Amino acid sequence: MDLKTFCRDLPKIELHAHLNGSLSRSTMLHLKRFYADSGLEDNTNAFFDEFQIGAGDCRNLSDCFQVFSIAHALTSTPEALAMATTLTLQEFHSDGCCYIELRSTPRNTQYMTKEQYVDTIVHCMQKSSIHLSMLSRLIISINRSYPVSEAEAIADLAIESYKKYPDVVVGMELSGEPTVGKFQDFVPALTRARNAGLKITLHCGEVCNPEEILEMIKFKPGRIGHGTCIHPKLGGTDDTWSALCTSKIPVEVCLTSNVNTKSTPDYESHHFKYLYEAGIPMIICTDDKGVFTTSLSQEYRICAETFSLNQVKVARLALEACQYIFAEDVQKTLKNKVQDFINKYCLSQ
Ligand code: IMP
Ligand code: ZN
């Protein structure tokens, strides 16, 4: 089997995908048409080209955060949000994903409350599990550039939603522009959510900030996102790197996202190689497949090609990812699924 087909057919686990960053061109066109047909203003004349960020894009990391408002303008009603969620889940499924933890920041809009926002996504996930051979779970996001009071309100909502939908809502996460806001301010909200039973993942080390990285590792999240600037050669320090090596917190690795936002100069210099050599658990993820024009199978293929991994090693990445999902009750089923694929297609290697 050629590598492209192998990476597509391999049952994969997606653990770091922001809903509004994952909207494909086709989904956005559907949404635009839906707004036009409903006589709604989408409040954006932005072309899709502005939403996508390619490798040679001259926008800096901060500029990259502006593009999400384009997607937000197209997911402001419950119907549009449902359409965006359903189409995005279908795309991950078509790409060979067998389990996804989709994350999103609940928003009050002119047409819905934050509660309705969460309910809408959860209902789409419940419905999609009937039609798709892919399990989906929700992680509720806190945006670090919003006031702390908003984070507290989202923690309340996350706890309520977890009680209401324990089979779908699994975690809470901290994301948003990494140069804005202080991690410590969000610790009370994150701790409350964790004490209520939600798992936590943190965007960590997207920019050079060793002090914050150490605080985050000390918090002991279930996983961290990116971890770009933790190794001493990449903006971290001996302390940040040894804290990660000791804690062995699984890292959600998003290769194309890091290259396209220029957090990493190119694939070859990506910190994947340091994490891999140090035996730190990793999960290959997309981050924002719409913004970065990628897919989960493409991320696996790029990883294999860049770091010369054979198909057995690539499949092992998918198998190991099963251990780090937040829905512990389905870990075994997923492991069996990936293992069956390995037995069928990798035994000769
Ligand atoms: P949403 O939460 O579904 O609205 O997805 C978009 C949001 O995800 C953005 O507004 C950011 O807060 C967050 N996000 C997406 N990509 C990144 C990233 O690479 N770093 C930090 N936050 C991100
Ligand atoms: Zn992210």
TrEMBL record:
Signal peptide: none annotated. The keyword Metal-binding applies. Residues 11-339 form the Adenosine deaminase domain. It comes from the Eukaryota. It catalyses: N(6)-methyl-AMP + H2O + H(+) = IMP + methylamine. Coiled coil: none annotated. InterPro entries: A_deaminase_dom, Ado/ade_deaminase, Metal_Hydrolase. Its cofactor is Zn(2+). Keywords: Hydrolase, Metal-binding, Nucleotide metabolism, Zinc. Belongs to the metallo-dependent hydrolases superfamily. Adenosine and AMP deaminases family. This is Adenosine deaminase domain-containing protein. It comes from Loxostege sticticalis (Beet webworm moth).
